[in-house]
Amino acid sequence: MIEVSELQRDALAEIFNIGVGRAAASLSLIVNDEIDLSAPSVLFLPPAEVQRTLLGGTEMQTLSLVAQDFRGPFDARAMLLFPERNALIIVGHMLGQQVPPEQLSEFEQEAMCEVGNIILNACISALADLFGIEFEGGLPRHQSADAASFDLFGVDQERVILVVQVDLHIHKERINGHMLFLLSVSSLRELLDCIDRFLAGQGVA
Amino acid sequence: MEIDATVRSDILDAMANGVFVVDVDATVLVWNRWMVEHSGIAADIAIGRPLREVFPGVAGTRFEHALQQALSHRLAGLLSPSLHAPVLPLYRNAEDRGRDERMQQLLNLTPIRLASVAGCAVLVQDVTAAVLRERRLREQAQELGRSNEALQTKLDEVQALQARLIDMQRRDALTGLYNRSYLNEVLERELTAARHAGRPLSLVLVDIDELKKINTAYGEQAGDEVIRSLGQQLAGIDLDGVSVGRYGGEEFLAVLPGVAVEAAVELAQGWRRHFEQSSLAFGSFPLKATCSMGVAGYPQHGKTAEDLTQYASFTAYLGKDDGLNRVSVFNPDNSSDAAPLPN
Lengths: 205, 343
Known about the structure:
The complex is a heterodimer of chains A (205) and B (343).
Chain A: H1 6-31, E1 35-38, E2 42-45, H2 47-55, E3 62-71, E4 76-83, H3 84-95, H4 106-131, E5 136-137, E6 141-146, E7 160-170, E8 173-183, H5 185-201
Antiparallel strand pairs in A: 1-7, 2-7, 3-4, 3-5, 3-6, 4-8, 7-8
Helix pairs in contact in A: 1-4
Chain B: H1 5-14, E1 18-23, E2 28-31, H2 33-39, H3 43-46, H4 51-54, H5 62-73, E3 77-79, H6 94-98, E4 105-114, E5 117-126, H7 128-170, H8 180-197, E6 201-208, H9 211-218, H10 220-235, E7 243-246, E8 251-257, H11 261-277, E9 280-282, E10 285-287, E11 291-298, H12 305-319, E12 327-329, H13 332-338
Parallel strand pairs in B: 11-12
Antiparallel strand pairs in B: 1-2, 1-5, 3-4, 4-5, 6-8, 6-11, 7-8, 9-10
């Protein structure tokens, strides 16, 4: 597996925090209330590891997932992942009403889709701005999935997953989720090159 | 086969959704027929103008922000009807327009390339029907929840009323204590429990002395006052598991589970003294009354509820021969003579 240095990870963490910060501003505008977002950790993990650590812990739980594909100097499938219970809390706050604790209806799925779209777009645009590159982003799709049968990573173990923890604060509630970026080996190399150029531009490396 | 511009435009016009395209400066380039119909703005008016002029209301909205992101970063965006009031001034029909009731809209913003510069195609879907249906379902669910709550409240009321009726059936109207029939039930239960646990149980029968004299001298209301007063004192007995009831006109029965005869006598003496010393009042008349008590215990005196109550009762009655205001313990030697005594 390709080595990622601490310096590279720190730089990414910084960029993602800029991204989620922008997203928080957009979300706050919608609900007319303060929403805080932070990205406290950034990790690169093989798919099997993500399956085990991230989804293993939420076994038997339903996941709410918003996926969006990005193409550019490196391609990625970006996903925003919350346990459905947490997604219901978020959507409930966003819609300003109690959402019944059953599965998300179409109405709430669209809301969640837009929340995911805002957060993912904000992060991708932060990457684009700071790296000085361009992406093209597809439309977001929402999906509810059973954590146990969630087999998105089984496809290609060659891939690397960039895992960004997302903490969302809304109405004094703290809600955890994750952003995942599925990267091919060549995309990962390209991403790391981008980071290195960014660091060089900052006079760091 | 190449599809020429006219055909493309025809296809766009045939669509049952709104489509418009803006260039990198957010100037309108395409405006399909659906947009004309639902915005009330003709294509030749819209095309060539900045979107901000066509729809002044979009300035500063999340829609404009998403559009900027599509144009500057080529990122697709979505605006759901659940999170936003309808952002574009589009109407399903003239009637809705008259009431300024905008259609519920789902907006997809897709970045496109126009020659070599950025542009954005906006797809508008009318989701009014779906939103209304969703709202109705939600209202119905809430309504159902409310009716369920109301039903539950009624059910609780009925249950509380039933419990009160059952309780009333068990109680004596004058004193509020258990009545004879319920006290007999309690006694049966307690006796069974005592038998299983191998525990003693005592009965104390309390009989008011010379109530007839009080009735004659002051009237039956005064007599009732004496009964009520003794009942109140007995109701206040602070003892685990004790049940007290009015057993007859001037008789009370206390069931003392787990209490042996000697201890029951001690307790009874206390109650007797307390009643003797208490000053009763009937209007402005001070009343004085005493009571006699008979104690019988399980298992040494009897095994059945019937025997035990009878023994306690006649012990209290027999005790009065030796003087009023006293506590007597059942003596089996007297039982054969006394058993047939009238109450």
